[in-house]
Design goal:
heterodimer, A: 176 residues, alpha+beta, OB fold (Dihydrolipoamide Acetyltransferase, E2P), 6-stranded antiparallel beta sheet, 9 strands, B: 454 residues, 14 helices, globular, lipoyl (chain A), Glycine cleavage system H protein (chain A), Single_hybrid_motif (chain A)
């Protein structure tokens, strides 16, 4: 019983947050259902910032608590693409599916698609890139060069953790 | 290129597809077989000169060919202006000239790759290499084409720092020592694939290039989009058929192909049959012809006209150069080709000019950046002097021009009234989500009870 209570109290803060839409990204678990590794492993602090990489050379860093993910292109990608001259940004409030194109980066006469690694709604775009697209070259994975913020759909946090590459995996992927 | 042309010498594997097959047999068309094709190297030629078809077929090859294959695709487009993906039509193209009856035959197209505006006609050869993203290189295939040109005696051809092919000027001591551009490159990169496509001026109409690609509005437009880099151009003057064969030979050699050891997939794409066989290409063409793609894709820009200066004379309005009164202000901020912020006033009196600006903003807000529509709305502004409205409206109507392309495009119904691929994909996704939600619901009720209890 004691352990049930302990688990329930863990669940509680999440459930009480269900008034804000974002918690839908981190669905509340059934007590009877097996707990995912995330809840048991010590890494599941209340708001973890986790960064993952895609085979399309995007990065997404997301807060496990709010379910807001920030998406950009990797340092490796910007180096390959060369000087960025224009970024096509999606509209705020539009919804995207995983693997949909959410815009394009133009550099040295090439247009490359930016694919969304997740399903969700676009909540913010980096307007600074309209004025200075080169920020993507200067600070691709930092504060300046991010591209969009997405409120991730249900179950996406878990899916990403399983499907996308972590930093080490991505690094060896680019060296293949 | 005619479909009946003899096959080149290098053919080792050939599939000929007749368009006149009995309907009950329905053999697969080449484009339908592409996905399963076992070959590493493919050589495609298009028999169509429709730029919308050729560019959409190229996009299909990019997205649906086997991931490790490399494809050489050559085609020629009928006269057309081809803009880069993120460019401004009004600062790149001489719209009044393009809309004059004399140039009725020239199409206006926005492509999916980056880069600047080019002009295509029957004297131009487009070549394109679709390859895995891992082997993407901006110069590699330009050098392959240069090699083909060298073998046809065009020895001055070389690749410059902008990844374009130029003819190096030979008169070293002379005053006129300008390299002439003969080929412009652009690229598209997706997931695992990429292409390098380029023009090649053989005997194009160079006068058209310089007149159609010079916009009277250019100096008044400031844009966040991509601007073209103007270069001196020249024709190479070699025979197209011969050059295509040479490029194909060099393409195979550059990919380490050896005769007799490996088969090459060779296909001639015929428009009607290909569009029928591949809905993706038909939908791509429809999208490319829509006003939404052609105009609304234009990045944000601002048009500002100066006061007290005669505006340029336009083709179609000889001798007509209106002058905006002193103290006038005219700036139009446009997003997705819709007017978003309008400042238009003529009065030196600050409070009245404020009234004028307010009224013009309200009247013109959300008007498409479309000449006749702007003119019409302009006439409704009561606080502006009649003659300014009349002259400015007339000038803008021609300078900005009407919109071409398809106004209303239904991307959800195909030619037969059925669902398009896009519609079906959305449905599949909705179904998936519903199932996921249902599965979620089965789990959830228990949780909420537990939480409420505790």
């Amino acid at each position: 019983m004691a352990s049930t209570l302990r688990i329930a109290s863990r669940v509680l803060p999440r459930a009480s947050g269900s008034l804000c839409r974002a918690t839908s990204a981190a669905p509340v678990r059934t007590l009877g259902a097996p707990l995912s590794r995330r809840y048991l492993s010590g890494t599941a602090a209340r708001s973890d910032i986790i960064k993952r990489y895609t085979v399309d050379h995007e990065w997404i860093s997301y807060d496990t608590e709010t379910g807001i993910g920030t998406i950009g292109i990797t340092d490796y990608a910007q180096e390959k693409l060369g000087e960025v001259v224009f970024i096509e940004l999606p509209e705020v409030d539009s919804s995207v599916e995983a693997d949909d194109s959410i815009g394009a980066v133009e550099s040295v006469k090439s247009a490359s698609d930016i694919m969304s690694p997740v399903t969700g709604d676009i909540v913010e775009v980096n307007e600074a890139l309209n004025e200075k697209p080169k920020l993507v070259n200067e600070d691709p994975e930092g504060e300046e060069g991010w591209i969009v913020k997405v409120e991730m759909g249900e179950g996406e946090v878990e899916r990403l953790q399983e499907e996308l590459m972590d930093e080490a995996a991505y690094e060896s992927f680019t060296k293949e | 290129m005619s479909p009946s042309r003899g096959l080149p010498r290098l053919v080792t594997f050939t599939r000929r597809y007749s368009t006149h097959t009995p309907s009950n047999a329905e053999p697969k068309t080449p484009i339908q077989l592409l996905r399963l094709s076992p070959h590493r190297l493919h050589i495609y030629r298009s028999t169509s000169t429709n730029p919308f078809f050729n560019l959409s077929a190229e996009d299909y090859l990019l997205r649906h060919s086997p991931p490790t294959s490399t494809i050489l695709f050559t085609y020629t487009n009928s006269p057309s202006i081809i803009l880069g993906r993120n460019q401004n039509i009004w600062s790149e193209v001489n719209i009044p000239l393009l809309h004059s009856p004399e140039y009725d035959y020239v199409k206006l197209v926005r492509r999916r790759s980056g880069g600047g505006t080019v002009y295509h006609d029957f004297g131009n050869l487009c070549w394109s290499v679709i390859m895995p993203r891992k082997s993407f290189d901006r110069d590699f295939y330009a050098n392959v084409v240069v090699k083909a040109l060298h073998s046809l005696g065009v020895e001055t051809a070389t690749v410059n720092g902008r990844h374009d092919i130029i003819l190096r000027s030979t008169t070293r001591s002379g005053k006129q020592n300008i390299d002439k551009k003969v080929s412009g490159s652009a690229y598209k990169i997706i997931r695992e694939r990429s292409y390098h496509h380029a023009t090649l001026l053989l005997n194009s109409n160079l006068t058209n290039i310089s007149s159609l690609l010079k916009s009277p509005l250019k100096e008044y437009i400031s844009t966040k989009g991509v601007e073209s880099v103007r270069s001196e151009v020249a024709n190479i003057g070699v025979d197209k058929e011969k050059l295509v064969e040479k490029i194909e030979e060099e393409f195979l050699e550059a990919n380490g192909w050896k005769e007799g050891e490996e088969e090459v997939g060779r296909v001639e794409l015929e428009e009607e049959e290909t569009v029928k066989g591949r809905e993706y290409i038909r939908e791509g063409m429809v999208e490319m012809m829509s006003q939404k793609w052609l105009y609304s894709q234009t990045p944000q820009f601002t048009l500002s006209l100066p006061p007290s200066t005669p505006l340029p004379e336009l083709p179609g309005l000889p001798g007509f150069q209106p002058v905006l009164p002193d103290h006038s202000k005219l700036t139009l901020l446009t997003t997705s080709s819709l007017l978003q912020n309008i400042q238009l006033s003529t009065s030196p009196d600050p409070s009245f000019s404020f009234v004028q600006s307010q009224e013009s903003h309200i009247r013109l807000l959300h008007t498409p950046f479309n000449g006749p529509l702007i003119n019409k709305k302009l006439q409704e502004i009561n606080s502006l002097p009649e003659e300014v409205k009349r002259d400015l409206g007339r000038w803008l109507e021609v300078a900005v021009g009407g919109w071409r392309g398809e106004e209303k495009v239904d991307l959800w119904r195909d030619a037969e009234g059925g669902k398009t691929m896009r519609a079906r994909a959305v449905e599949r996704e909705d179904g998936r989500r519903k199932r996921a939600r249902a599965a979620e619901r089965e789990e959830k009720p228990v949780v909420s009870e537990q939480v409420e209890n505790s």
